[in-house]
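The instructor's notes for this session suggest beginning with a concrete chain rather than abstract definitions. Hand out the sequence below and ask the class to guess, before any prediction is shown, which regions might be ordered.
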Amino acid sequence: MTTSISRRGFGSLAVVSAAVLGLAACSGSSGGGKKGSVTWSTWGSPEDLKSFDKFQEAFKTKHPDIELNFQPTPSYDEYHSKLLTQLSSGTAPDVFYLGDDRIASVIPNGVLLPLDDRLGQNGAVSKEDFAADLLSVATLDDALYGIPNDVNPDTLWYDKEALQAAGITEDPADLAAAGQWTTETFFEMTSKLKAAGLTGAVFYNYWATHDSWMTSQGGTVYDEDGAYVAHEDETSIRAMEEFATRFQNEEFLIADLLPEGSGADTMLVTHKLGFFAAGRYTIGAIRGGGVDEDLYDIVPWPTPDGSAASTGVAASYLVINKKVADPEAAFTFFTEFLSVDGQKLRLEDSGNAVPSIQGADSLVTDGGYPKHAQTMLDMRDAGYSNFPTEAAVPDLSNSIAVDHMLPLYQGKSDARTTLSQVAELVAEKAEK
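After discussion, reveal the predicted structure:
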């Protein structure tokens, strides 16, 4: 995904044609392009893809000798399926996106260009410009193969009107600033919301939700050697049992299962929802909902003692094809796309993602919205990417979420059993 897109709901996106977008198309050749050209690709809806127009125009003006060919694909799953076929046949783009649940499985195939020798040269972006814990999933044997193009930590958006309707007078962000944003307080609020006929909180069902809940509660998911250990960690087991119980009593809902037209965005702007774990793209939903935007703010995930914790950060990664026909042109595009100026051109108007590079934070804070926008940056800097062991196996993150976490949330399993099953699955897949 471009991390501007709301989670994994990519299959329903309308088909995008390059002609409609006014972008040049290219069928691709060995390495995806030719000398003096860069073919690049990502996925997204027509609205999301328009965010690249300003950058492409600026790049073409600055580098008239480099031809740009854009190959978008609407669906996240369709995009990666198509890309793997292209990589096998030698027709993949020169520069392309990879999802945070896919990149670690592609790197071992030897199809990506190592970046370390080029980074930091002649004014190019450097590894030090990005949070180290967001690079680990794109690293193998100490070599870096991808950099997050932008990110989206799932802050907890909250509706002050919904909280007031439930008799809640304390402001979550104020509590967080005072070190009093505790798990107990969060549960008290969501319980009051449910008692008032509202929904306490909505979460997407993907890796960063269950992993973030465990780590925010002081648990461990993977150890330093990359082994899955949540099933052996009593704190993680207890945290997931408490989390799942609230889905089972419908205090919490799963965004992925909400009916079309009555999704989390709609619930939020109609004041039927207290908290929504989502990225910066939620600004668009609020402003498009015709509501008073000052009724909404953000807060980090609660913790047992109220101190800040590290949580998962959704990201997609920009990489370079190892068979690229013109490495210099590709790296020029790559580094400018990721640069401070490049991220500003892509993100300054859309407000749909958080810059991944240090030095572009003003994109998030200058608008003054939401009031505690700095929380997004703090969660980015303290957060982590999908765990390499898990991301190294295609579709493993999705299988964990759908085949194991979903039954837990539905009351068909308990946390100890679920986490033990996940551990067995991870061990089996990792061994293969």
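Then share the key points. The longest helix spans residues 415-431. Residues 1-30 have pLDDT under 50 and may be disordered.
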